[in-house]
Amino acid sequence: MTPASPLHFYAFEVDLREFDRWSGMRDIHDRDLATHSLLAELFGEGAPRPYRLVTVRDAPRGTLYGYGPRPVDDLRGTAETLGAPDQLAALPVDRMRGKPMPMVPGGTRVSVETRVRPVRRNGSRELDVFIADGRTESREAAYARWWADTCARSGLDLDHDTIRLVAFSLVPFSAKRRRGKRPIGPDAVLRGVGKVTDADSFHSLIARGVGRHRAYGYGALLLSPARSAANDGAAP
Q1: What is the pTM of this model?
Q2: CATH number belonging to domain 8-100
Q3: Are the folds of 8-100 and 109-225 the same?
Q4: 33-63, pLDDT tens digit by residue?
Q5: Which residues are CB-contacts of 223 (< 8 A; sequence separation ≥ 6)?
Q6: Could you tell me which of 202, 185, 186, 182 has the C-alpha nearest to residue 194?
Q7: Domain spanning 109-225: which CATH class is it, in words?
């Protein structure tokens, strides 16, 4: 099947020492905000979105996985032409890889992992789904239901009993301030197994991402062949 609009899947190696040096020189000490800034400066409107920077503690390099409409050669060309040397030291051009993202056929079972901000809007505020829903179930169950409901509307039927909350913390949101302070909210990594029920809708979900703050490292769906959600290996 051919998607209505092109979508590409990227994997960019990030030199974390050079990246932290670059962000430190700009007085940006939040890695999510720094990643957003680096991508915007290098690629402009063509920056990958959604995306996720995957790192391992104390490792010198990480991988940025993301989606976007432009072929990786176009992004590489933009970076080579307009990127500053310190930016390219952090995100080396020769380590930018990508492929056209095919549509996943309906009926396919997939393992999915995503980093999300599970929140609901309440006027200008965001409320943790766990709190907004009255703390009537565990945090894992509340987030699992929120994620499954979101995906069900977009062509992916997640098996509730496979969904796991594999990482969680309460952290400030990088880009917002209220009365001089950054609001605290949930940062969660969820993993589960499901079946694609509508190939077109699911393809659009991959391109769009899940939840809010997708320009800051949240919402990207990383896919792999279906397996137990309890498996310790991370997608992709």
Answers
A1: 0.90
A2: 3.30.70
A3: yes
A4: 999 999 999 999 999 999 999 999 999 999 9
A5: 104, 110, 111, 112, 206, 235, 236
A6: 202
A7: alpha beta
Domain limits, the chain: 8-100, 109-225
Give the DSSP H or E segment for 75.
Answer: helix 72-82
The mean pLDDT value for 67-71 works out to: 97
Contact 115, 174 (CB under 8 A): no
pLDDT of 232 strictly over 50: no
The helix (H) or strand (E) run that includes residue 164 is strand 164-172
Go through 98-134 and write b for each residue having 16 or more CB atoms within 10 A of its CB, e for each that does not.
beebebbeeebebbbbbbbbbbeeeeeebbbbbebbe
How far from the centroid of its chain's Cα atoms is residue 75's Cα?
Answer: 19
Collect all residues with Cβ–Cβ distance below 8 Å to 213 and sequence separation of at least 6: 117, 173, 175, 219
